[in-house]
Specification:
Length: 224
Amino acid sequence: MTLQEDTKLLSVHNLGCIRGGRPVIENISFDLPGGKALVVTGPNGIGKSSLLRTLAGLIKAHAGSMTLEGAEDDLSVGQQAHYFGHADAIKPALSCRENLKFWQTYYGHPTRSPYQAMIEVGIEDLIDLPAAYLSAGQRRRLSLARLLVSYRPLWLLDEPTSALDKASEHKLEVLMAEHLIEGGLIIAATHAPLGLVDPLRLHLDRNLASEPALDDALSEPTAH
Ligand SMILES: Nc1ncnc2c1ncn2[C@@H]1O[C@H](COP(=O)(O)OP(=O)(O)OP(=O)(O)O)[C@@H](O)[C@H]1O
């Protein structure tokens, strides 16, 4: 495949990780170009979250390699990724604005003000409220706003619609579409349809734990 100068490409080759002393993902290989999403599916406990956490650099890969070319090549994949996991990365004693300012300072590459990001997720009225006062869905939306205050090309989304109402789910669809149009990449682990247009798909299956199936991929899985 020929890469345009500004085209990003995430390449994952034979990735594996160990948790609790046993391998939970093995031999995961795929290519994901900028502008595309990869939807990861599979039964509970198969390793979807572990895959995302490994890509985010939160779990050490015990095998394989991953690179993200075309962005900041000197940074690791995790350093170029926003990780939106089950736990909301929110400090309850800080206001919503202070939480977003903290993350923007930490991540760098500012794209929107905290207030603009809060408008995007529809909770701008709560911007000066301590995050401890937010409902579960509001916390989730604040967590989502964290992705909007700083640019990172790769979004790693673990069950991103959990606790979101229908309007927020729709907003998430729009935000994901915008990120892809701008050449970003998304990997989403999900049990729910996410409204992504024509995503690549990786289904992890218990019987195929060492041979994940990647449909419609740029490169065939190379499980050995
Ligand atoms: N902190 C941990 N220590 C040890 N083992 C863990 C840990 N977290 C998860 N596991 C194990 O790793 C395996 C994969 O878990 P993971 O959370 O990645 O699955 P999942 O596909 O995301 O599941 P779900 O659909 O339920 O969210 C499971 O067998 C789980 O028991």
